[in-house]
Give the backbone structure.
Amino acid sequence: MMRAAARACHDVDGPIPIGTRPRGYLRRTDGLCRRLADELRKRGVRIGDPSALSRLASTTPDLARSMIATADGLIEHLAMTAAELSVEPCVEEHEYWRFPKLAFDIRSELAPDDAQRRLNELAEAGLDLRFRISLQAVLPDSPGEAAEPPLIAQLLRLFEEDRRDEALDLIYDHVDDLLMARQLNEVDGLLAAASNEDLPMTAWLSLLTVTLPWRDFLGSGRQGLVDAVRDRALREGGPVKAQRVLSGLE
Amino acid sequence: MLTRWLRSSKDVPTAPVCLLGIAVAVTDPNAEQLHVGVVHRGASSAAQVLHLAWHADLQADPLSGTDIEFYWVEFDLDPDRVETMAAFCRRVSRRRPSVPYGIWYEGGALQDDGAAELKGKEIGLTCATYVLALLEWGGIRLLSIENWPSRPEDASWHRGIVRALRKHQRRNPDSISDEHIARVEQDGGCARFRPEEVTAGCCEYAGAPVGHEVAWQLGEQLRVALLA
């Protein structure tokens, strides 16, 4: 869906005049947003909390799939907005970190009121993209499959077999590969998913350490893992332990 | 035990206790030259020393059983943090990136594969600043580098480094450029982070960067003990 949206965007021959976005499309997106918001509210999930969404996704995959479809609609929305403005859209997952650049382009292209409206739209779309990535990290490919993403499943197995060095080596190699490919949303989703798993503290700290140089480019998944580390450290050893494990990693 | 800090390479806790510390050795007793690296061990591996031996020569050696007689001091870090950093050291040891030599240091860290992420005027790292950069990567600022003094007594060390780089170039003409050596020469008079001060920083580290005065005083004690 996302790639289709990207193609549609690139097929546009020149900028579409602002304000000619199909109204039917907008209604569909708005409807999806409302449905998503209603579903989340019913389940007490706060929008903007990917770890809560991840938990929800692992227990109710059908709902999660409909949420992903909603997010796909928003990605399309974003691509069209970008095409209207004749700015480069964020069309690939690993390019979502370019949202601020896109926002800057919009600000410089439009009158203040219109720019503010578009920026708000972008912010919403960006937030929902983050939902989508964090959901994909825990969602089974089809109903009945294991809910953990491959890395986390491997880590759980390695730690269970007391192969700790291998587990940590796997974290560094796997996450570094993702970072080098600028798959930042995937990494953030992985961190969000990891914070919901009963992994050893050292695995959590390795994830925080390997992503430390990228912390400014990662979203709430990393912050969620920081919070999980702090909570566990406080339970296990009080404030001193929390300070010692997190020093320099936040 | 030479001091209450220094331990011999044989004095290593048995596995599965993980280790992270600074390994230090006397490489040239006549010049009283010391050398440092990071000693690390995971839950099921042998203790190794990761050290920048020279220009573009990052090495991973066993703590004991080599030509270099290492001593080591242990970091007072949370055990989970130790295990995490030991895993990063293993990763760098596997990759062994090429790291250029340079004496100007202003807080650069490493990249995820252990190569130097140079900052500001930096053109490379020394054995001591490689240790600082590695720890910086892991969120550990060992020394208060901002206030580190330039010291006239480091001038002879600096001249020796430039001579050694030129000699290295004569033997390996393609390995280092004239421009690189000229930059190292121009950086004379910069703040130097001595191997014994980095080692002392490890002894004194308690979550906050160690200041120069503390590192210098304890570093001198360690140096005397090692050269005795």
Confidence is low (pLDDT under 50) at residues 1-33, 89-100, 137-149 of chain A. The two ends of chain A are 35 Å apart (CA to CA). Residues 90 and 96 of chain A are 6 Å apart (CA to CA).
